[in-house]
């Protein structure tokens, strides 16, 4: 870990949000990463105290930068680079529950096509939860 500032794409890669820097760059240029509420470029320097919002469908992570690193290390070291906010954790858990519930409720046990009743239940579930998956 180094003190000071580091490029956003390097930090996202070192913090293990993306497997490669190229994937991190693609996400940044696609508008899926914001720093302190603003859309930024990949060369943006992040420092401890910055808030980074990362959309990795179907989840959204909101983290606070605790430390910076230019090199990718083990997962345990990467976890020390950031702290996820409580609202972000709750949001990810809610989405995970919805995905699991949708799978349990609507995946038929057999290889048959869903019935009209099954399709109506699925559409009602999507409408009630605002889920667009």
What report would you give on this structure?
The chain is of the alpha+beta class and 133 residues long. The protein has two domains: 1-84, RNA-binding S4 domain (Structural Genomics Hypothetical 15.5 Kd Protein In mrcA-pckA Intergenic Region, Chain A, Roll), CATH 3.10.290; 86-133. It has helices at 8-14, 21-29, 75-79, 86-106, 116-129; strands at residues 6-7, 33-35, 38-39, 45-46, 51-56, 59-65, 82-84. A five-stranded antiparallel beta sheet has the order 3-2-5-6-7. Helix 1 crosses helix 2 (21-29) and helix 4 (86-106) runs antiparallel to helix 5. The protein starts with 5 loop residues before the first strand and ends with a helix. The model has no long low-confidence stretch (mean pLDDT 89).
SSE layout and pairings?
Elements: E1 6-7, H1 8-14, H2 21-29, E2 33-35, E3 38-39, E4 45-46, E5 51-56, E6 59-65, H3 75-79, E7 82-84, H4 86-106, H5 116-129
Antiparallel strand pairs: 1-4, 2-3, 2-5, 5-6, 6-7
Helix pairs in contact: 1-2, 4-5
């Amino acid at each position: 870990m180094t003190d000071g500032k580091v490029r956003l794409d390097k930090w996202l890669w070192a913090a293990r949000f993306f497997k490669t820097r190229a994937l991190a760059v693609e996400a940044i240029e696609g508008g899926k990463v914001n720093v302190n509420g603003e859309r930024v470029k990949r060369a943006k320097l992040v420092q401890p105290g910055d808030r980074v919002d990362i959309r990795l469908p179907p989840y959204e992570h909101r983290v606070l930068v605790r430390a910076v690193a230019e090199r990718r290390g083990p997962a345990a070291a990467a976890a020390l680079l950031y702290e996820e906010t409580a609202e972000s954790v709750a949001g990810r858990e809610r989405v995970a529950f919805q995905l699991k519930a949708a799978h349990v409720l609507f995946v038929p046990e057999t290889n048959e096509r869903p019935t009209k009743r099954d399709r109506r239940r699925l559409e009602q579930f999507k409408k009630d939860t605002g889920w667009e998956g």
